[in-house]
Amino acid sequence: MPDSPDTDVTIYHNPSCGTSRNVLGLIRNADIEPHIIEYLNAPPSREELKSLIVAMGITVRALLREKGAPYKELALDEPHWTDEQLLDLMLEHPILINRPIVVTSKGTKLCRPSETVLDILSAPQRGAFRKEDGELVVNEAGIRPAQ
């Protein structure tokens, strides 16, 4: 399918992350092959990172991945860190960037939980999709089941 505004999707992806894999699966379940940026190997520039944060409407701190190293070792939960310092650290240690981030014509989101990607995909789901843990996200008709 050729890229159009409705199918031009970019995912900042970590293939080792289950949530990121689930989001990629949901994008592909909409018959979209996204531009995949494995941000650990090809981190965004400072300006790209700032632009993504602005587009998501979140704070720099809200994009920080708090789980595991190096968040704890660097004591990033302490409030003295400035946004510029946090950006520097995310660029130095891309694992600190929470993921997956998805960019579409409908918006940019940090897609946690993974089904939040459905809010910014223009194309419908083309069948059932289950997360890796077996949770049903959309049914055979491509519709989210009632919660």
Task: Spell out the blueprint of helices and strands.
Layout: E1 10-13, H1 18-29, E2 35-38, H2 46-56, H3 83-92, E3 101-104, E4 107-110, E5 129-130, E6 136-138
Parallel strand pairs: 1-2
Antiparallel strand pairs: 1-3, 3-4, 5-6
Main traits of this protein?
alpha+beta, Glutaredoxin, 22% helix, 147 residues, 6 strands, two-stranded antiparallel sheet, four-stranded mixed sheet, single chain
Commentary on this structure:
The structure is a single chain. With 147 residues, this protein is an alpha+beta fold. The chain has one domain: Glutaredoxin (3-Layer(aba) Sandwich). It is 22% helix and 14% strand. The protein has helices spanning 18-29, 46-56, 83-92; strands at residues 10-13, 35-38, 101-104, 107-110, 129-130, 136-138. The strands form two sheets. It has a four-stranded mixed β-sheet. Helix 1 links the parallel strand 1 (10-13) and strand 2. The chain is elongated and about 50 Å long. The N and C termini lie far apart (32 Å). The mean pLDDT is 94.
Describe the structure concisely.
This protein is of the alpha+beta class and 147 residues long.
β-strand number: 6
- What would you report as the Rg, rounded to the nearest angstrom? 16 Å
Structural class: alpha+beta
* CATH topology call: Glutaredoxin
State the distance separating the first and last CA atoms.
32 Å
